[in-house]
Amino acid sequence: MKVSSPQFKEKSVIALADPRLRQALGQSRKGFVNKRAELVGALPEFEQLRDEARDLKNHVLDNLDHYLERYEAAVTAAGGHVHWARDAEEARSIILNICQRVNAKTITKGKSMVSEEIGLNDALEAKGYTVVETDLGEYIIQLAHEPPSHIIAPAIHKTKEQVSELFEAAHGGPRKTTVAELVTEARLVLRDKYFQADVGITGGNFLVAETGSSIIVTNEGNGDLTQTLARVHIVTSGIERIVPTLEDVALFLRILARSATGQETETYTTLSTGPRRPHDLDGPEEYHVVLVDNGRTKMLGGKFQDMLRCIRCGACMNHCPVYGAIGGHAYGWVYPGPMGSVLTPLFVGLDATYDLPNACTLNGRCESVCPVRIPLPELLRELRHMQHQQGIRPQGERRALGAWRFVAERPGLYQFANRLAARVLKGLGGSTGRIASLPFAGAWTDSRDMPAPEGKTFLELWQARSKP
């Protein structure tokens, strides 16, 4: 697993200075946010659906072993095979063994965040396999030799002009200038790859315990071609993606597209149940599901179990002001934004991801839009608390927090310090009411002025209001 989270601050500085990135993020973020608001506003029962989805996910997680066993039995009954992977290395090994056994040469892939999580592409290419990403966004970043910067829009950080340059370098011919021309070119290039593929690998948005089906939702149809034209279909999915019945899937489909891209529903919702049967016109000869743990069971029954409700819609990062300013690559791993700031430390360790839980203003927008009501700010605060308990936070910060606690636990001293600080800051603001430079706050004042406090302190206003 390639993790570069320790360079979060350095990567953020670079991202903030990139005008092309700001342009790309600005255009895409506005579309996602506005479309979601419009579609959610048109569905009166949306908040009720969020509650139902949260409760159903909690039920599944409380009985995960039962539903996983039911799912395995249903997959086996349909002629498929279920493989259990404790970690990323085991998952890669399982998939490599399947590819070797069937003498694969070309492998097509639909979008799968779990395959990114386990570092699958690098492992396959190291063994000499030709790997072709078929999702347009994934195909773009594969050409650019970059990781995805968003879980539903991997190339959200690329402008149309950058994509045009990539396609010209990779495909030759005259440079295409419109989105329609670029999409057509990608389709023509990828069309032959589907028929050449020996193995098709997809993710699984939902795994249905009742039927043993895997379900993917896409807007391009590439997932359908990936999993039906190859001789072997491999599904990679986290163990938490189980739902009890097909009827339950309908609940999640009503909130997924609205939360992710601001659509009533995705263009394609595709169910796969086992390999091709004698009467089927198409489909794979073999059907495999690789269920990946990779740290998920450690979250069960603990403070972070809520995070396993995540349906990977991306709404939290679409509405996050930090992600909106720096994009996904600064987070240094597969999962960016608020959900990544929780998941990455849990998967790869707090010490290797120090800045991520702190890369948040705790404004709460992520929680307010999460379709399964994950309390992301609360989980981020808990990670900060764990960092403090484990002595990971810098010594200077620990001393400053200790001094703050000393003052805060003494009301008289706190009120005196509060009044003194307000007067000092007002004085520094002068006639403009803006502070251009402030000791120990250079990270703020180096790029913007700090507003000086105005009027009375909160305590003074509270005391005045509380008087009879």
TrEMBL record:
Alphabetized UniProt keyword annotations: 4Fe-4S, Electron transport, Iron, Iron-sulfur, Metal-binding, Repeat, Transport
Domain 4Fe-4S ferredoxin-type as annotated: residue spans: 301-331
GO biological process, one term: lactate metabolic process
Molecular function via GO: 4 iron, 4 sulfur cluster binding; metal ion binding
Gene3D superfamilies named in the record: Alpha-helical ferredoxin, NagB/RpiA/CoA transferase-like
PANTHER family noted in UniProt: LACTATE UTILIZATION PROTEIN B
Protein name: Iron-sulfur cluster-binding protein
Organism the protein comes from: Zoogloea oleivorans
